[in-house]
C-alpha cells in the first residue's frame, strides 16, 4: 500500500504559514502530520504545489514519485491536524481494507483506494483533487477529523491536542523522569533554580535541550532537540518549541517552528512563528482585545470570526522584527518581511514595514537570498539551489499582497 499526502485547494487559505512549506510540515501539538503518517510504516509520496516539489523531495527523502501506485492507496489530506486521534483513524482505515472516502466538514480528510479504483493524477494539486474526489465512485463516510482551514486554527487545535500528543510521546519514547512530571532525553539540561510546574501537564525535553538558570516552566510544554531557553524566561502552558530554537522572555500557548529566535525579553502569546524568524528585543504581541470579545482576523480582504477570545499573531517564515516592535491582536505577518514600530494591520510578504512611521517599501528577493545564506551559515546549514528557487517562487506568489501596502493606517 502507498500513502499519498495531498494538498487540496484550501491549503492557500493557510497563508502565510504555507507559502514556503507543505501543509503536512506544519507543527501543531508538538508534531507534524508527516511524522504521524510515517508511523504507519508504509511508503509515502507527497503531492504538493509545484513550487514546493524540489524542497520537499530534498527535505523528506523517500517521498518522491518512485513508488508504484498499482496497489491500494491511502490518500491523506495534508491539512489534517497532526493528533494521535487522527493517527488512530488512519490506522483503522488501513486495517479495514475497505475502499471508502472519509469526509470532514471542510473537505475530504482521507480516502482508501483499492487496486481497481481510479488513480489520481501524479501531479495533481489544488482544485484537481476536489474534482478527483467528486468523480470517485466510492461510498463516503462523514467523520469529524479536524482539518486546518485558517491560520488561527493552528493555535486552537494546538491547545486541544498537545496534552494527548505528549502522553503518546511518553508512552512510545525513552525518557528519564528527572523531576515529577519532567521528562528528558539524553543531553537535556535544566539550569539552577528553575521552577517546573506539572500539575496541568508534563514538561518534555528532547535531546540536548538547554534551560538557563532562574527559568519558570509550566506544562504541558514540549521543547524539541537542541532548543535553548534563555535565563529568566517564562515558558507557560501549551508551548511547543521546534528544534534549534532560542527563546527568552514570556511565552504562552504558542508554536515556534525550528531555527527561530525570540531570544530577548518581550511577550509572545497564542501565536505561531514560522522558521528562521527573529524577534528583536522588546517585541511583544497582544492576544486579547480591550473589549474582551472574540477576535476577527482578516484573510484575503475578508474578515473571519475566530470565535476565540485569545489569539495573538501569525508570523511567516524568515520574518524579522526590530527592537520594541508591538504587534496588535490577531495580525498576520508575511514571509520574508522586516517589521518596525507598531503592527496595526496585516503585513504583506517581502516588505519593509514601518507603517506607523509612514513607510512601507518592498524587500527585494535578492536581499532575502543573501540574508538566508548568512542565517543558514550561522546554524551550519548549507543553502541549496532549491532554497533559492523557493524564495523566488514565494516572492512571485505573494506579489499581489504588496499592492495592499498603500492602504491607510487602520487600527
SSE layout and pairings?
Blueprint: E1 2-6, E2 27-28, E3 31-32, H1 33-38, E4 44-47, H2 53-59, E5 73-77, H3 84-96, E6 100-104, E7 107-113, H4 127-135, E8 140-142, H5 152-172, E9 176-179, E10 182-184, E11 189-190, E12 195-197, E13 203-205, E14 210-211, E15 216-218, E16 221-223, E17 228-229, E18 234-236, E19 239-241, E20 246-247, E21 250-252, E22 255-256, E23 261-262, E24 267-269, E25 272-273, E26 278-279, E27 284-285, E28 296-299, E29 302-305, E30 313-315, E31 320-321, E32 326-327, E33 331-333, E34 338-339, E35 342-343, E36 351-354, E37 359-362, H6 365-378, H7 385-397
In short:
The chain is α/β, with parallel strands linked by helices and 411 residues long.
How would you characterize this protein structure?
With 411 residues, the chain is of the alpha/beta class. Helix content is 20%, strand content 27%. The protein is built from seven helices and 37 strands. The strands form eight sheets. A nine-stranded mixed β-sheet has the order 9-10-13-16-19-22-25-30-33, covered by helices on one side. A six-stranded mixed β-sheet has the order 4-1-5-7-6-8, with helices on both faces. The mean pLDDT is 94.
Amino acid at each position: 500500500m502507498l500513502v499519498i499526502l495531498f494538498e487540496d485547494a484550501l491549503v492557500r487559505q493557510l497563508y502565510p504559514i504555507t507559502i514556503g512549506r507543505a501543509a503536512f510540515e506544519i507543527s501543531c501539538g508538538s508534531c507534524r502530520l508527516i511524522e504521524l503518517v510515517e508511523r504507519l510504516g508504509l511508503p509515502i509520496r507527497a503531492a504538493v504545489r509545484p513550487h514546493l516539489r524540489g524542497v520537499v523531495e530534498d527535505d523528506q527523502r523517500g517521498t518522491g514519485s518512485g513508488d508504484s501506485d498499482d496497489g491500494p492507496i491511502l490518500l491523506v489530506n495534508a491539512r489534517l491536524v497532526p493528533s494521535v486521534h487522527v493517527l488512530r483513524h488512519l490506522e483503522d482505515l488501513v486495517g479495514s481494507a475497505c475502499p471508502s472516502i472519509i469526509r470532514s466538514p471542510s473537505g475530504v480528510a482521507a480516502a482508501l483506494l483499492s487496486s481497481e479504483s481510479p488513480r489520481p493524477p501524479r501531479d495533481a494539486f489544488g482544485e484537481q483533487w476536489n474534482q478527483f474526489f467528486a468523480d470517485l465512485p466510492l461510498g463516503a463516510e462523514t467523520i469529524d477529523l479536524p482539518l486546518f482551514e485558517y491560520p488561527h486554527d493552528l493555535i486552537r487545535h494546538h491547545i486541544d491536542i498537545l496534552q494527548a500528543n505528549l502522553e503518546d510521546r511518553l508512552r512510545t519514547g525513552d525518557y528519564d523522569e528527572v523531576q515529577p512530571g519532567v521528562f528528558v532525553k539524553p543531553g537535556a539540561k535544566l539550569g539552577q533554580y528553575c521552577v517546573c510546574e506539572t500539575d496541568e501537564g508534563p514538561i518534555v525535553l528532547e535531546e540536548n535541550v538547554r534551560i538557563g538558570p532562574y527559568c519558570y516552566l509550566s506544562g504541558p510544554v514540549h521543547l524539541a532537540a537542541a532548543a535553548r531557553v534563555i535565563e529568566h524566561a517564562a515558558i507557560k502552558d501549551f508551548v511547543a518549541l521546534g528544534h534549534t530554537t532560542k527563546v527568552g522572555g514570556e511565552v504562552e500557548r504558542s508554536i515556534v517552528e525550528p531555527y527561530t529566535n525570540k531570544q530577548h525579553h518581550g511577550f509572545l502569546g497564542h501565536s505561531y512563528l514560522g522558521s528562521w524568524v527573529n524577534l528583536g528585543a522588546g517585541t511583544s504581541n497582544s492576544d486579547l482585545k480591550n473589549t474582551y470579545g472574540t477576535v476577527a482576523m482578516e484573510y484575503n480582504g475578508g474578515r473571519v470570526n475566530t470565535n476565540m477570545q485569545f489569539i495573538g499573531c501569525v508570523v511567516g517564515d524568515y520574518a524579522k522584527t526590530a527592537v520594541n516592535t508591538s504587534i496588535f491582536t490577531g495580525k498576520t505577518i508575511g514571509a520574508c518581511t522586516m517589521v518596525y514600530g507598531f503592527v496595526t494591520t496585516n503585513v504583506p510578504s517581502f516588505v519593509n514595514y514601518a507603517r506607523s512611521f509612514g513607510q512601507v517599501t518592498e524587500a527585494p528577493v535578492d536581499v532575502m537570498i543573501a540574508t538566508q545564506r548568512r542565517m543558514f551559515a550561522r546554524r551550519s546549514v548549507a543553502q541549496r539551489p532549491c532554497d533559492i528557487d523557493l524564495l523566488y517562487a514565494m516572492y512571485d506568489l505573494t506579489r499581489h499582497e504588496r499592492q495592499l501596502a498603500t492602504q491607510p493606517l487602520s487600527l
